[in-house]
Amino acid sequence: MGNSLQGRVAVITAGSTGIGFGIAKAFVDEGASVVLGNRSEEKGAHALARLAAGDRATFVKTDALDRAQVDSLVDGAVAKFGKIDIMVNCAGGSDGWALVGDLSDEAWLKGLEWNASTAFWGTRRALKYMLPAGYGRIINISSIEGKIASKPMVSHYIAGKHAMIGLTKATAVEYGTSGVTCNAICPGPIETELMQDAGAQVAAAAGITYQQFMDDFAADCLTKELQTVEQVAGMAVLLAGPLGNGMTGSTFNVDGGSAPF
């Protein structure tokens, strides 16, 4: 598309690895400045080195499960670049995997907070700056599991991603005439660093190998193959750029045809 994001400023939670980093790289390639949030300073430094974007990329140590830190991430971006045009709520995950009958209260609540509350906090803080400017793009990274439920042991993740889509639609309804759009991307299975770690643990809890776990995901796709970070990043660029004006309150699948809607 060629510098379609020239002069734009994007904040990306969980932006130092996996899908978040892929989106950051695509945004930088399109001319944007990016602010990456992540819990690990080491991963943040590595991400900045890989981006090689100079003053157009910065890292802020951020635990997305801490509302105050999410607020500071957004505020810091505005303090550095003078505005925020794009908010990508990419943080998400779950732990304490178990079937519904055995799932702990702690795991359930953390799953909802990790996926839905983090997106709410990022959205709410970004709106503080986007609404007076009359422009903004909010992109929530949900999942095909936000539309369907295809795997056992992850009900808290599934519920959190469904809630993220509900938040997306509600935000779009409330701010449709403000110049701010809000959409969700629903990726299918992607073998990121997070997937390699969490997926292996979920597979073990389910009594199968990690390879079987990933093969099952690929088998669910019409394409019979896993998706890529670059495919998700391409969709994010579309939604974040000038062609995204007419898209809001929608969910966009990048799932190889896994979800039926």
Shape annotation: globular
Work out the helix count.
8
Query: Could you give a short account of the major beta sheet?
Result: 7 strands, parallel
Rg computed from alpha carbons, rounded to a whole number of angstroms: 17 Å
Order of the strands making up the biggest sheet: 3-2-1-4-5-6-7
Structure description:
- With 261 residues, the protein is α/β, with parallel strands linked by helices.
- It has one domain: 3-Layer(aba) Sandwich (Rossmann fold), CATH 3.40.50.720.
- The protein is built from 8 helices and 7 strands.
- The chain has helices at residues 18-29, 41-51, 67-81, 105-133, 155-174, 193-206, 210-220, 229-240, and strands spanning 9-12, 33-38, 57-61, 86-89, 136-141, 180-187, 251-254.
- A 7-stranded parallel sheet has the order 3-2-1-4-5-6-7, sandwiched between helices.
- The longest helix has 29 residues, at 105-133.
- The two termini are 27 Å apart.
